[in-house]
Every structure is written in structure tokens, then in C-alpha cells.
Amino acid sequence: MVYAGEKEVRELLGVYFIMGSANCLKNPIEVLEDAIKGGITLFQFREKGAEALHGDEKKELAKSLQDICRKHHIPFIVNDDIELAIELDADGVHIGQDDESASKVRRRLGSNKLIGVSAHNVAQAKQAIIDGADYIGVGPIYPTVTKLDTEPVQGSTVIQSILRENIHIPIVGIGGITEKNAGDVIRFGADGVSVITAISHAPFPEKAAKKLASAVKIGH
Ligand SMILES: Cc1ncc(COP(=O)(O)OP(=O)(O)O)c(N)n1
Ligand SMILES: Cc1nc(C(=O)O)sc1CCOP(=O)(O)O
Ligand SMILES: [Mg+2]
């Protein structure tokens, strides 16, 4: 078991690094090791896009990244691919509105795995709680170049409407987040920030992760 309860989930969301091989400018293993040195709190393996690995190559990379996470006690989350998460005994999964339903995934994974669900409005946030999600990913907060088929950019609006309605679930912001705006995302009411480009494209991923961690701390 990698987490004990809601408070711990909120802490885990602090600097949530998401990455796959296609996002990296150098070896993904080095990028992850540097990001961990810089202070990331959670990692999601998101092997997606035209250049993504498949089959055994995908599994081997996932295993290597999971080993690094285990060594450093960083929970390893798998994006979309529930079969892979089960096969590797990952610490959890992240699913979107177009993926397998969260309630079904909760039944498949049991109660001791972390499940994140993307939510773009209040109704989806409420449904995520009913379905047994541990946290929601809310975005895109800012314009992103990483994912083309996103919902419209929302700034603070969705996070704030979720909080105004007293919906109680850990929240991580996503989309276009950098060291410069991460503090604002926390001040909007998110528990943490999830980033791809800000770390994976940084010339020094360790430094980038450190700056994000510090912005998140100041934002709280
Ligand atoms: C933390 C976090 N939040 C949102 C997403 C996006 O998930 P989804 O909408 O399913 O899109 P893909 O990432 O699968 O393209 C995420 N991955 N992580
Ligand atoms: C994977 C993803 N999901 C989003 C959403 O809004 O649900 S935005 C996004 C891409 C995040 O990458 P970057 O940090 O490079 O902007
Ligand atoms: Mg998805």
C-alpha cells in the first residue's frame, strides 16, 4: 500500500510528473532520475502519441521506470492502460472521461490502489467521487502543446467552481503548467500540479523539478 488516506494523497499530488518516451529529449530513465532528485512526489507513465512504444518495448520501459520509482519510494501510476497496471502491480492508474469507467476500474483494482480521473466540470468531479476516485486531474488550466484534443482552456474556473460547491476530493491541475504559474494553480485551490513539458523538456530536469516544488510550497 503506497498511501494511507486523503491527506497523504493531497501531499502526493504536489509535483506530479507525467512522461513517456516521446516526451523526452534524452533517455527517459535519466529524465526520471533527475526529476526524482529534484523532488517530484508522484510519477505517471503516459506512453502515448505517434512515436510511442508498444508491446514488449513499452512494457520494458514501464518496468525500468517503475524500478526507479520503487527505489525512491515514488508511487508509479499508469495512464490509460489498466492491463499493464495490473500486470506490473503498479501503484495506481489515471483515466479520462473517454477511458474505461472509473467504477469498473475500481472494481478491477481493488481498494488499495490509487485511481485518478480527469474531470472538466462539477458533474464529472461528483461522478468521480461516486466511482471511487482518489483524486481528480483538472485541465487544461493553461494552453498546452502536449495534448491536442483537450477541452477548452479553463484557468481557475473549474477548480473554483468545484471548491465553491464543497466537493471534497484531492485536485491536481494540468495543462501548460510551468515554474512561473505553478504557484497560481495552488492558489486557485489545487493540491498540486501535474506537468509533462516543464520537466521533460527542461535542459536540467532536476532544476526544473526543484523550482516547481518550491513554487508549490510557496503557493500553499
Ligand atoms: C493527472 C492527470 N490529469 C489529467 C490527465 C488527462 O487524462 P485523459 O483526459 O485521459 O488524457 P490522456 O492523458 O489519456 O491523453 C492525465 N493524464 N493526468
Ligand atoms: C495529458 C494532458 N491532459 C490535459 C487535460 O487538460 O486533461 S492537458 C495535458 C498535457 C499536459 O502537458 P504539459 O504539461 O506539457 O502542458
Ligand atoms: Mg486517458
Automatic annotation (TrEMBL):
One record GO biological process: thiamine biosynthetic process
Enzyme class, first EC level, given as a word: transferase
EC number(s) given by UniProt: 2.5.1.3
Residues where 4-amino-2-methyl-5-(diphosphooxymethyl)pyrimidine binds: Q44, F45, R46, E47, K48, N79, S118, K147
Cofactor names: Mg(2+)
A Pfam family matched in the record: TMP-TENI
Family: Belongs to the thiamine-phosphate synthase family.
Name of the protein described by the UniProt record: Thiamine-phosphate synthase
